[in-house]
Amino acid sequence: MAVLLSGRGSNFLALAAACGRGEVPAEIVLVLSNRAEAPGLQRARELGIPAQAIPSRGLSREEHEALLLQALRQVQAEWVCLAGYTRLLSAQFVAAFPRRILNIHPALLPAFPGLDAQRQAWEYGVKVTGCTVHLVDEGCDTGPIVLQRTVEVREEDTPETLSARILEQEHIAYPQALRWLLTRPWRVEGRRVVFLPVT
Fold it and tell me: What does the angle CA 40 – CA 193 – CA 71 come to, to the nearest 5 degrees?
């Protein structure tokens, strides 16, 4: 699989650690970022994982995604995991990996899609939030949900403390969801990911 990130890549590191422990039967063959300065790229290199920046500045989305797809095909990536990747993928990109692009979002979708979801939840005053692992479609955080984990919102929380506790659950949820998808039979029924009994 390949990982796309735009920042520090903590979810990438959680996935890499789970793969290294044998919990997820996959190998990360490439880490890509649209930002050359993304700390996640350096972390990947430190782990011996090929890492490449393909800056998006000055390119149309079509041009940028063509370069991403070229890099992904060169390493024969079968799955793509988004780990803090801040660009919305086009329908054409999604179609190149049908139901094989995974994302994690720091809220209980369909509530609070898009950027800064933790602050959105905190400002709204919800009592429970969390994180969602979902398959990616052409919308913004609208794909079929694979797994969710909840986080209680405490009275003393700030957006920062809430974000930190959600992140802890993200690092558990993302490897677990990927492991399920790779080791259990499943299908998509409407908007639902249904895991089937192992025969």
Answer: 35
d(CA 70, CA 68): 5
Q: Are 102 and 80 in contact (CB under 8 A)?
A: yes
Is 103-199 in the same CATH topology as 1-98? yes
CA atoms within 13 A on the CB side of 8: 4
Superfamily for the 103-199 domain: Formyl transferase, N-terminal domain (3.40.50.170)
Cβ atoms within 10 Å of 119's Cβ, excluding its own: 16
Neighbouring-strand partners of residue 135? 102
Q: What interhelical angle do 159-183 and 10-20 show, nearest 10?
A: 40
Q: 138: pLDDT confidence band, cut at 50, 70 and 90? A: very high
Q: What percent of the chain has pLDDT over 90?
A: 97
Whether 171 sits among the annotated catalytic residues: the reply is: no
- Asked whether the beta carbons of 100 and 181 are under 8 A apart, the reply is no
Half-sphere CA count of 41, side-chain side, radius 13 A: 14
- Name the pTM for this structure: 0.95
Per-domain residue ranges of the chain: 1-98, 103-199
* Of the options 3.30.70.2520, 3.40.50.720, 3.30.750.24, 3.40.50.170, the CATH number for the domain spanning 1-98: 3.40.50.170
